[in-house]
Amino acid sequence: MRKNIIPFILISPLILSAFLYAEKNPNLPQRYKKWLEEEVVYIITSKEEKVFKQLETDKQRDLFMEEFWRQRDPTPGTPQNEFRDEHYRRIEYANRFFSRGTPKPGWKTERGRVYIILGEPISRDRFPNSHYIYPTEMWFYQGNVSQGLPPFFYLVFFKRWGAGDFELYSPLRDGTHKLLPATSHELSPPERSFADSQRMRGRTAGGGVAYEILKERVSAELADATLSLIPGSHPPVESDRLLGEVNSYPQRSVDDEYTYEFLEHKGVVEVSHSVYYIGNTSVVKIIQDEPGLFFVHYSIEPQNLSVNAYEDKYYSNIKITGRVTDSKGKTVFQYEKEYPLEFSKEQIKQVKLIPMAIQDSFPLVPGNYKFNLLLQNTVSKEFTSLEREIIIPESREAFWMGDLVFAFGGKKDKESLKSSFKVGETRLYPCLRKEFTPQDTLYLFFQLYGLSEELREGGWVKYTFFKGGKEQHVKKREIKEYGIGMNFFEEFPLLDFPPSRYLISVSVLNKDEQEVLFREESFTVASEIYTRPWIQFKRYPGSGDPVYSFTRGVQLLNKGEMEKAEDELGKAYEMDPEREDFAIVYAGALLTRGANEDVKRMLMPFVEKQLSDDNLYYILGRAHQGLGEYEEAISFYLKYISHQGVSFAALNSIGECYFQLQNHKEALRAWEKSLEINPDQPEIKKKVEGIKKKQ
Fold first, then answer.
1. Number of domains present in the structure of the chain
2. Helix count (H) and strand count (E) of the chain?
3. What is the dihedral of CA 435, 438, 440, 442, to 10 degrees?
4. Contact 527/498 with Cβ under 8 angstroms?
5. DSSP state of 71
6. Residue 202 within a domain
7. For residue 183, is pLDDT > 60?
8. Domain boundary at 503, 536, 569, which?
9. 330-340 pLDDT, tens per residue?
10. In what order do the strands lie in the sheet with 470-478?
11. Whether the Cβ atoms of residue 603 and residue 583 lie closer than 8 Å to each other
């Protein structure tokens, strides 16, 4: 039996903050204490921790823990929570491999903490103790750009003075010389004397003798990493900022606003789990438009659509969440869209008889991906989902046959706007179940990319229908009959196809009628008539609109393909430099390669307009800081905080700017405030301790 659905009530954050900061210190049962202080210590936000400590019963704690993992589930609506499973795998790995040679459990070590936060690095190089280096490890990661990490970066761990636990290395705090033993019998006396003096004085610009020793005697890659953890030319302060971003990465990856609702409604929190799975029929196809961009088109038909009634109106609301990930599970693209639905009393009678399909499309850059889609009826808490492996060809010139699309027909649509399953001026009505009756006409659509002139002039397309493995029907046409484009439409009346399951093979033949390319797919001719759905879809700007370059640029940014991303984002910005989102994301991409002057030039006009995206101030702060204009940087960071709220990342940057201005008092204030918000910042703690020792 379904529970009653009780809507959550939003309450003022100012009112709630009184509860959040009136933190209780309950005598937690051991299993909850272990969960809080050991299992999720590196990934829980301060707000989540405060709320958890205020819960009064084990039932509330269990529900909170369930909600905690649900908020991080990359595929909501499926039985498996990949994030939770991977998190506990990392803890187990850390305890097994990083506890050796130390009294600490593995999860408490520096290497264990980083491994739990970031997972397995792309590569891990170990450098055992020798005359030239203390025990050292160098890990190489691909970063999540959308969460503030650089596309690629190193993390270096070393045993200070050759003993104890591995510590996380900082180019700003430590310097190359800290990795070298105090003496080295392989150095000549002049080298040893100068190297020792460098160790006493600290690292010299460019790495000095210590850098040269490490480069020549151990590893050039490691030597470069000791100067900057971010490949390329970056000042040491950027590496320290990276270390801070790594520590706070799990907290930035989750929206903890749900804790407001949980705390207010902890007595009836079960309502957030009142969701019910329903089946669906769906189809996902890849279609290239005329300018050459590939789009993912999909149609999903849920088995049931529940509606609520109010007076004489019936309403529902469909929320679509789409996510595209690469082979490593990294998010390349994600989006949310809503379809509010309202019906009259007469319309609802038809809705009950006719299924509904949601159709949509989006551009996608080349690669191999997994596409997950979650459809939620937010009124009834019903949900359904689909998952597909999809391939976008790397080259538009490659000889390739696109997906076969089975449709009931096509309709002329001369609108300049794009929509799902629209090809040129024809909008297809795909048959999701690939199920027809003998009275239907099967409309088949596909695309051929990279056709040579020889094939275009002398080639053929052959359609072969099989039933039970036996050839039933064959149709053959010359390719030149279809015109000069890449789109191929064909119609097949099904009067002579008795009810059964069929296989159609579409082959491309050369002038000698030899098969050079083919694709096949099955369909069904049924005796019962399939009720065609009524369709909900959205329209979008034509192919030349800059929004497509912007979307592709964001996808490339998420993939870490920075040059291509910058090119696409630059196209969008040049076409519409007044768009704030275009400018800010493009500026963020430029910032990664230190183009600070360009960032200032692009974004300063938006400051005067006082537009809505507060990230504008943060990026300008980064640009001014990168140019050594620390006072200007501080003013922008403060504007960011005044609009967005207190941010420990912004406070850390303010502290660094004051430190560079020799204003240690204000630097200390900023860093201490940052630690109040996020105490788990060992690097900031060390900076604070360093200032206090000098006072």
1. 4
2. 22, 25
3. 60
4. no
5. T
6. yes
7. no
8. 536
9. 889 999 899 98
10. 435-436, 515-525, 500-509, 460-467, 470-478
11. yes
Token digits of residue 32: 């909850």
CATH number at residue 298: 2.60.40.2550
**End-to-end C-alpha distance for the chain, whole angstroms:** 67
Bridge partners of 471, per DSSP, are: 466
Task: Report yes or no: 180 and 132 within 8 Å, Cβ to Cβ.
Answer: yes
* Average confidence (pLDDT) over 134-144: 92
Q: Do 520 and 566 belong together in one domain?
A: no
Same domain, 322 and 179: no
Whether residues 494 and 558 share a domain: the answer is no
In this structure, which long-range contacts are made by residues 160-165, counting pairs with CB atoms below 8 Å and at least 24 apart in sequence?
160/134, 161/134, 162/129, 162/134, 162/135, 164/102, 165/102, 165/104, 165/109, 165/110
The candidate with the shortest Cα–Cα distance to 364, out of 458, 427, 294, is 294
CA distance 107 to 112: 5
Contact 170, 683 (CB under 8 A): yes
> Which residues, other chains included, contact 248 with Cβ-Cβ below 8 Å and sequence gap of 6+?
648, 649, 678, 680, 681
Give the mean pLDDT of the chain. 85
Same domain, 28 and 160: no
Whichever domain contains 588, its CATH number is 1.25.40.10
Structural domain contains residue 80: no
* Closest residue by Cα to residue 147 from 256, 248, 232: 248
Query: Is the CB of residue 175 less than 8 Å from the CB of residue 208?
Result: no
What is the domain extent for residue 387? Answer: 275-536
Report helix angle 580-591 to 546-559, nearest 10: 30
Residue pLDDT, tens place only, 552-581: 999 999 999 999 999 999 999 999 999 999
- The DSSP annotation for 168-213 comes to E--TTTT-GGGGS-S--TTS-HHHHHHHHHHHHH-PPGGGHHHHHH
DSSP string, 261-311: HHHHTTTSGGGGG--EE--EEEEEEEEE-TTS-EEEEEEEEES----EEET
Long-range residue pairs from 644-651, CB within 8 A, at least 24 positions apart, any chain: 644/614, 644/618, 646/673, 646/677, 647/618, 647/677, 648/248, 648/674, 648/675, 648/677, 648/678, 648/681, 649/148, 649/244, 649/245, 649/248, 650/618, 650/621, 651/677
Among candidate residues 357, 352, 272, 359, the one with its CA nearest the CA of residue 314: 352
β-bridge pairing 515-525 and 435-436? parallel
pLDDT, one tens digit per residue, over 33-50 is 999 999 999 999 988 998
Statement to judge: residues 131 and 196 lie in one domain? yes
| Pairing of β 123-127 and β 136-142 | antiparallel
Report helix, strand or coil for 369. strand
Q: Quick check: is 505 in a domain?
A: yes
Same domain, 152 and 58: no
- Is residue 18 scored above 60 in pLDDT? no
What is d(CA 219, CA 206) in angstroms, rounded to the nearest whole number? 16
Q: Is 358 exposed, middle or buried (0-12, 13-18, 19+ CB in 10 A)?
A: buried
SS3 632: helix
Predicted TM-score of the model (pTM): 0.61
The structure tokens listed for 165 are: 């636990």
Return the closest-CA partner of residue 651 out of 633, 674, 631, 622: 674
User: Would you call 233 helix, strand, or coil by DSSP?
Assistant: coil
